[in-house]
Amino acid sequence: KGSQVVLNGSASADPESHQLKSFRWFPQGSSDQLTDASGKPLEGIVAIWTAPSSDTYTFRLEVSDHADLIGKANCTGTVVVP
Fold first, then answer.
1. Percent residues over pLDDT 90 in the chain
2. What's the whole-number mean pLDDT along residues 40-52?
3. Residue 55: per-residue pLDDT
4. Residue in 76, 78, 73 with CA at minimum distance from that of residue 11
5. Looking at residue 36, what DSSP letter applies?
6. Going by fewer Cβ within 10 Å, which terminus of the chain is more open, N or C?
């Protein structure tokens, strides 16, 4: 049984102070978007993902602005499943 991970992109900002339009979450090194428990792609400034097992996972957040310019950032988290 997995453990939920909260992914939070609220520290993201556009260098020209425009509002960000989309937030998409990926496992690092993959073009396949993470999905929630129902199989829906994870999108949004805050997303919840269920890790399949205890491990260290690296995520990539892709954000886009009003002009569809994309910025990317990576983060790593350790998930401990009891």
1. 41
2. 91
3. 82
4. 73
5. -
6. C
Contact between 11 and 56 under an 8 Å Cβ cutoff? The reply is no
Q: Structure pTM?
A: 0.83
The answer to whether the beta carbons of residues 76 and 57 sit under 8 Å apart is yes
The token pair at 26 is: 């990926």
SS3 assignment for 16-35? CCCCEEEEEEEECCCCCCCE
Write the CB contacts of 39 (distance below 8 Å, at least 6 apart in sequence). Answer: none
| Residue type at 20 in one-letter notation | L
Strand-by-strand arrangement of the 20-27 sheet: 20-27, 55-65, 70-79
